[in-house]
Amino acid sequence: MRRTVVSNVNEEALKSEKVYYEEDVIDLREYLAVIYKWRWVIAMLTLCAVLTAGVLSFFVLPPVYETKTVLMVAQAASTTERRPTTGQESLESVVSTISSIPQLTMNTYVAQVKNYTVLANTLAALGEKGEGLTVNSLMSMIEAQALKDTNLLEIKVSHTDPVMAAEIANTLRAQYLDFISASNQEKMKKSVEFLQNQLAIENKNLENVGTEIQRLEAEPRNFAFLQKEIEGKYADLSKYQSLANQALYEYQQLQAGRDRLKEQLAQVSPTITVNRAEGKEELNPAYVSLNDALIRKETELAEKAAQLEAARQIVAALQTEIKNLQAEAAEKKLAMDRLNSDLERTKKTYDLLNEKMTQTQMLQAVNLGETYLIPVSPAPVPSSPVRPKKGLNMAIAGVLGLMAAVMLSFLLEFLDNTVKDSADVQKLFNLPVIGTIPVMEEGKARKGRRQKKTELREENLAWTKAST
Predict the structure, then answer these.
(1) Which of 24, 173, 203, 274 has the most crowded Cβ, counting Cβ within 10 A?
(2) What gap in Å lies between CA 428 and CA 151, rounded to an integer?
(3) How big is the CA angle at 147 (ends 144 and 153), to the nearest 5 degrees?
(4) Over the range 382-397, which residues count as b (16 or more CB within 10 Å of their CB) and which as e?
(5) Which of 97, 120, 118, 98 is nearest to 109 (CA)?
(6) Domains parsed from the chain with CATH numbers
(7) DSSP per position, 67-123
(8) Other CB atoms within 10 Å distance of the CB of residue 70
(9) For the segment 379-418, what is each residue's pLDDT rounded down to a tens digit?
């Protein structure tokens, strides 16, 4: 039983797979049948599309001619190298940037071709030839691009008149060169004005710094005077230091002599016995002499101490004066050095601005449009149109018409719900067809009815004779 069930299931599965396969084949055949059924409609629609495209391309659409002119973008003369960020070199870099010609990329040059000012100037230059044209219509005729891996700028112009296309392209090229030149001239003019203003400012700064330096040099106690004062004070200090050292040395010698006298005086008796019997004493002459010598030493020592103290006070006073003079001289020197540094920096800035202004004036005198944009080839008069492309248009119209016709055929087939033959009945009701009734023409139907009546009449006549 299990084997039988499995077998039945497998047979049913195979039947279902077979049915599905047959349904897929039937669907594909139905698609092909629909296309075959509507083949004349598809063919007519495709042919109409091709004929319409041909009529439009040959007789309706005007021929469009295209011409092009080529310009070469030269490199700018100013350098783009990165400089160190030191003060003077940074200033030179800034001034060079201000006074140099702006360096434009190829994309910038391409974008400037369709500048409103350039197109308006082109229309003005065309004059009567440009009647009926506007800036927007002219912009739609122009296409600019940078040729890959080159410095070449290509300008294309399309027009229904080949001569007008060449005229527009050549006029546009000339106006574009004039526009770039005018832009650079305006930039150079502003740079010259800026440099002139800065030169006036730096010249004023030079005068102010020079006046301040002269004022400092004209002061009674200027740096040179203070230097001489310091030198004189140093000479006096050296002299009094020598005197102080000498006085100290002599003071130390006197002090040592005094100490020796004190020691000697301590060893000598103040009195001596003249008569032992009577016990009479007298002052010791040696003691008196040593005492007198000690008094003189003390006096000399006091004088030398006073002299040493005076020398030390003078040395201290001289050191204080020298210190004050050095501070004042340092302040004067710092102010003078600062002014000299400002003077040197201002001179360098002034010379740099003067040099850049000269260079800018030279650049201003050059026709920068023709220097940095070099015409390579003018726009020739085209001999054959580039649009419309008749063959391509007809081929595209044929493909589109074929696709539209096939889609329309399937749409009409989908919307048609009438029954036309036995296959439609079988498909609609999923029932087998027992038989069909042919449709007869009207003439054949009448002839059949007459023949039927004749046969019936003959049968009736034969049956009457037989009965009699």
Answers:
(1) 173
(2) 73
(3) 50
(4) beebebbebeebbeeb
(5) 118
(6) 15-61+388-419 (no CATH), 63-218+365-377 (3.30.70.1130), 223-358 (1.10.287)
(7) EEEEEEEPPPSS--PPPP--HHHHHHHHHHHHHSPPPPPHHHHHHHHT-HHHHHHHH
(8) 17
(9) 999 888 888 888 898 999 999 999 999 999 889 888 877 7
pLDDT single digits (tens) 354-377: 888 887 777 666 655 455 778 888
239, two tokens: 């002299």
Q: 321 φ, ψ to 5°?
A: -60, -45
Length, in residues, of the chain: 468
Question: For residue 362, what are its two tokens?
Answer: 């030279």
Residue 86 and residue 94: Cα distance in Å, rounded? Answer: 12
Say if residue 89's pLDDT is above 70.
no
- Structure-block tokens of residue 356: 């850049």
pLDDT score of 118: 92
pTM exceeding 0.85: no
What is the spatial distance between Cα 311 and Cα 245, in angstroms, rounded to a whole number?
Answer: 9
CA distance 417 to 411: 12
- Measured CA to CA, the distance from residue 396 to residue 402 in angstroms comes to 10
> Which among 146, 149, 124, 144 has a CA at the least distance from the CA of 134?
124
Hey, what are 114's tokens?
């369709």
**Which amino acid appears at position 173 of this protein?**
R
How confident is the model over 170-207, as pLDDT tens digits? 999 999 988 888 887 788 888 888 888 988 998 999 89
The residue assigned the tokens 């399937």 is 410
Instruction: Report the alpha-carbon distance of residue 364 to residue 209 in Å, rounded.
Output: 33
